[in-house]
Structures are given as structure tokens and as C-alpha cells.
Amino acid sequence: MVDFALPAAAASRQDWVTRAKMLGRLQLSDKAFFHITRSAAWFVLILLGAIIVSLVIGAWPALSKFGFSFLVSQSWNPVTENFGALAPIYGTVVTSLIAMAIAVPIGLLITLFLTEICPLWLRNPIGIAIELLAGIPSIIYGIWGLFVFAPFLQRTLQPFLIDVFGPIPVLNTLFAGPPYGIGVLTSALILAIMVLPFITSISRNVFEAVPPVLKEAAYGLGFTTWEVVRYVVLPYARVGVIGGVMLGLGRALGETMAVTFVIGNAHKVSSSLLAPGTTISATIANEFTEAVGDVYTSALIALGLLLFVITFIVLAAARYMLLRIERRAG
Amino acid sequence: MIDLYSRRRHRNSLVMGLSIGATLLGLGWLALILGALIYESFRGLSLDVFTQMTPPPGASGGGLLNPIVGSLMMSALGVVIGTPIGILAGTYMAEYGRFSPVTGVVRFINDILLSAPSIIIGLFIYEIVVAPMGHFSGLAGALSLAVLVVPIVVRTTEDMLNLVPKELREASSALGTPQARMIWNICYRAARAGILTGVLLAVARISGETAPLLFTALNNQFFSTNLNAPMSSLPTVIFQFALSPYADWQRLAWIGAMIITFAVLAFSIIARALAASRKQS
Fold first, then answer.
1. In the predicted model, what is the mean pLDDT of residues B106-110?
2. CA distance linking residue A298 with residue A55, whole number of Å
3. Region for residue B95 given its phi and psi (left: phi exceeds 0; alpha: psi -120 to 50; beta: otherwise)
4. How many Å apart are CA B146 and CA B80, to the nearest integer?
5. B156, containing H or E segment
6. A104 vs B233: CA distance, rounded Å
7. Given phi > 0 = left and psi -120 to 50 = alpha, else beta, which region is A265?
8. Which of B29, B71, B120 has the highest number of chain A CBs within 10 A, making it the mutation to test binding with A?
9. Å from B189 to nearest chain A CA?
């Protein structure tokens, strides 16, 4: 803090007064700056608190009216004001899980390529290109999905899936119905592309943090590249990779615009992945401005609260795991 | 024995092939999206896009002037509101409270806010700004964007200030500089490029955000710079036009999409270049 040495020379009284004034002012500005920065830091905490409180208050009318049945009811009827969240919850979970099932292996394979095989000079350009996928705004994925990707799937992949799985008893319910183009599967595929860069960039960091000595020792024993990755890198990087995957999952769960374009916004739980469905965020985006009446609005905010709670848990788990990795590395 | 070797080798080359394939898939996808954007939008690109208002349903012609202006205004205001809060909070975490438990909690919460679904932010601003005011407004849109800016800036500011060598701080303290003055004149100056990178990343992030604007700024068919009234923005116009049945609207949606994408990519590439130049020097 501010301190000052007594002037050795005999300064005039006037000098002393101005000097003390100056120092007082400095001390004051020092204190003020400290308190301003501290309140800004607290502001971040208050922001999160305010978000939760405002969502709970907004959701209360719907939650108190429907109670637990809000979570398990499939009905979504603005006319009779009867709302249940089952269809959006189901859509959110299913699209995200399929997206992760596709994105995790592909993301890890890309990481493997970037950290083990790729020539050094190509690593950064390719890494940046993959990360640019994360920079593209989600509405662009939406418009591309609607006009380019969905018609493409309607012509190719979906009829193929229907033909192949048609005669197989259980799987044919998963791929039943006409190929709409839009629907749960299309949304999941687009989500997969969107979370890919998150998984790749985090697992790349973790893969590169594996001590070279370990890998060299394994190569020295005659491991192939794949065996080094499988038995040395992956076990060492496991927690970090899981953290990255959870982070991607958090993104997928909350993703709004891309899904809104291609999921079809149908409030029902259907067994077929080709059928239109809805997710929590798509429901809010589509219906919030048109919602008439307090219960309708409140039901949509309750959906938002639900989404926030789910993503909060997933993201907190992800951060906790990544924190553990950082501590071990640092 | 030989059998085992060749099986391992085969498995290895299989996985290597798959990983090359996966990388090509990722890169190909990026190329496909950018290619479609360029192909679809260059057909209709003309100067009208930047000088004309959005057309009414079914009418041909028209441009995107009002959403472009709206987007610029709300993004700028969002950055102006969000950046100081973010920098100050990051300053506290790196300079004053580096070892205090509050910092750990703030960092954790901030990281969660960083990846929280943006539509939730829209609902939040609706609850605390739009509902009490009784109408949608550009100001509410800017505030929701500011909430998105804060965590990004907090994160980069803290990281960058942590990289400032402590010898610099010790030297300035030894000269009797008050701490606040040291932060302003030494630490901020040393971390300037890094903090600017964070702000640019935040700009890139919010200029494409749609979800929080849908029910804060809503949309406006007409030219308006009134922050107290509903305001048009590129993402919401894309959303509305792309889902409409009119070919002209869809064409404008594609053009808007291209403008946003290239603006966002330009911002993130500048941010990267800035970060890279800092690393080298």
C-alpha cells in the first residue's frame, strides 16, 4: 500500500500539506479501485444468482399448477392451458446423446491425427480450421441444415436407413415413417458437427500434456501408434477427455437456433428418429414471443429453468474434471 | 508370431486411416458449409443489400440495411457495457484476490456462464427488463448481449494478467507506485494485446447470437435507431426470412448469413493473429 518516507531535508510546512493531500488522494483512488474491481467480481456471482432467481419466479405459476406432472406429461396444449415437458426433455436428451455418440469417436480420431500423425507444419492450420467450425454462428448451421443438409438426407441417408432396417424387428421402429428430411436424426447430426471442435480442442490440449517420456518408453517397447494412444495416452488423459466431452454435451443440450430450424417442432415423443420432434430450447425459441397468457409463458420459462439446471450440472461436472487435470499438470 | 505382428500392424493402419478420414470429414464439412454460403448468397448479392430496407412479405428487391444497423448498434452497446465489467472482475481475480477463495468460486461460476445456453440469458433479460418495461427494446437486446460478453472478457483478462511477470509488479511497487496505478500503467499495458483478443472474441461470439435477441429486441420491419423500441438484427431477420415461404426473403436470409459468417470469422482470425503475435514477441 501507499507509504512514504519522511523527507530528510527540512521541507516547508506548505510542502508537507500538499504532499499529504496527494498521498491521501492516491490512497483513496487505490481503495476505490480495489472496491470497484471487487464488486465487478461479485457481480459475476450475483448475475448467476439473479438468473436462477428470475427463472424460478417466472416458472413458479406453471410449476405450482402442474407440480411433478410437468416433468412426465406429454401434453402441450395452449388452448386448454395444459403443459407437460416430457416431449421437449426427451428430444433434448435424445438429440444430444446421438450427437455425442457420433462426435466423440470422430473428435478423438481427429485429435489422434493432429497429435500423432500429422506433420508438424500442418498441425496448426488444421487445428484452426477445425476450431473455426466452433466459430460459425449456430444460426448458420440452422439455415444450412434446413436448405442443404435436410433435403440431402431426405434423398439419400433416410430412405437408405428405412430400407436397411425395415425388416429388422426392433430397429425398424427407430427408423420408421416417411423420410421428412427434418427431424430428430438431422438435428443430432448437425449438433454432432457443432460439438466436434469443442471435443477436439480440449482433448488436443490434454493429449499434448501427456509426458513424452511415457510415450517414448512405449514406442521403445515396440508399441504401434494406435497401441500407444490406446494404452498410454488415453488412460493418462481420461479425466480431461471426459471433461471435454461433458463440455460438448453442455453445448449440445443448450444449442438453440440450429436445432430450431431442423427439428420440426412437434410436441410428441415418437419412437422413430426420422420423425419431427422438439427440444427444450427449440420450444422456447419458437413459441415464447407468441405465448398468450401467464400460464403458457410461465410453462416456457419453467422449461428454461429445467434446461438451465440440466446444463448447470453437466457443465459443473465438466469444469470439475478439467480443474482436476489442471491441478495435476500445474 | 508373424501373424500377431501383422494383425497389430493392420489394426494400426486401420485406425490411422480412420483418423485421417475423420479429419478430412471435419475439414470437408467446413468447406461444405462455407461453399454453400458463398454459392447461395453471391447469386443475389448487390449494393441494394446495404442500402435498402427489408422488404414486406412477397415483395421483391429490398435489402438488409435496418438489421445491419440494428446488429451493429446492439453489438456495440453490448460490448461497451460488458467489457468494463469483465475487465474489472478479471482484474480483481488476477491482481487483488489471486489467492482468495472468492476468486476460485467466481472463476468456476464464470466458466459455467461462459457455456450456459444463450437462450436462458434471453429469458433472464426478458424477466428483468422487458417484462417490467412492458415492451421489447433494443436496449434489452444489448443488455442480453452484454451478459454474454462479461464471462468471455473476465476469462481472458484474468488469464492475461496472470501471465504478466511478477517482477514487473515488484519493480513498480519498489518505486512506491500505488497498486491501482501499477495495474493501470504496468499490468494493463503489458496485457493489452491479450485483453483486446478477449474483447474481439466476445464481439465474434455475440455478432452471431440469435437466441437471446428473439424475445428481448424482437425485430423491427422498419429502420429504427431508437433503443427504447423493438430493433431489427441480422440473426433474427435470418431466422424469420429463412423459415418464410418467399423466395426473395430466403435469398436475403442467405446473404445475411454470409455477412454474419464472414464478419465472425474475420473477428476470430484477427483475434488469433493478435494472440499469436503476442506469443512470438
1. 93
2. 9
3. alpha
4. 8
5. helix B138-163
6. 34
7. left
8. B120
9. 17
Single-letter amino acid code for the residue at B234: L
Q: Which of B123, B179, B235 sits opposite A30 (nearest CB)?
A: B179
Nearest CB among B106, B250, B265 relative to A135 is that of: B265
pLDDT for B278 equals: 63
B58, three cell numbers? 412477397
> Is B221 a residue whose pLDDT tops 90?
no
Q: What is the pLDDT of residue B268?
A: 87
The three cell numbers locating residue A270 = 415418437
pLDDT tens sequence across A57-113? 999 999 898 888 888 888 888 888 889 899 999 999 999 999 999 999 999 999 999
**Cα angle A58-A63-A65, degrees, rounded to a multiple of 5:** 115
In this structure, are residues A263 and A184 in contact, taking their beta carbons and an 8 Å threshold?
A: yes
Q: Is B136 left (phi over 0), alpha (psi -120 to 50) or beta?
A: beta
Q: Which of B123, B181, B184 to mutate to test the interface with A (most CBs of A within 10 A)?
A: B123
Give backbone dihedrals phi and psi of B136, rounded to 5 degrees, phi first.
-70, 150
Cβ within 8 Å of B, A 49-68: 50-51, 54-55, 57-58
Contact assessment for residue B157 and residue B245, using Cβ atoms and an 8 Å cutoff: no
- Sign (positive/negative) of CA torsion A200, A205, A211, A212? positive
Cross-chain CB nearest to A284 (options B19, B119, B210): B119
Show the 3-state SS of chain A: CCCCCCCCCCCCHHHHHHHHHHHHHHHHHHHHHHHHHHHHHHHHHHHHHHHHHHHHHHHHHHHHHHCCHHHHCCCEECCCCEECCHHHHHHHHHHHHHHHHHHHHHHHHHHHHHHHHCCHHHHHHHHHHHHHHHHCCHHHHHHHHHHHHHHHHHHCHHHHHHHHHCCCCCHHHHCCCCCCCCCHHHHHHHHHHHHHHHHHHHHHHHHHCCCHHHHHHHHHCCCCHHHHHHHHHHHHHHHHHHHHHHHHHHHHHHCCHHHHHHCCCCCCCCCCCCCCCCCHHHHHHHHHHHCCCHHHHHHHHHHHHHHHHHHHHHHHHHHHHHHHHHHHHC
pTM recorded for the entire structure: 0.90
Of A6, A144, A20, A31, nearest to B38 by C-alpha is: A144
- Cα separation of A80 and A65, whole Å? 13
Which class for A221: exposed (0-12), middle (13-18), buried (19 or more C-beta within 10 A)? exposed
Is A319 within 8 Å of B102 when comparing Cβ atoms?
no
Burial tier of B271 (Cβ tally within 10 Å: 0-12, 13-18, 19+):
buried
Taking an 8 Å cut-off on Cβ atoms, the answer to whether A281 and B124 are in contact is no
**Percentage with pLDDT > 90 across chain A:** 52
Q: Flag whether pLDDT at B35 surpasses 90.
A: yes
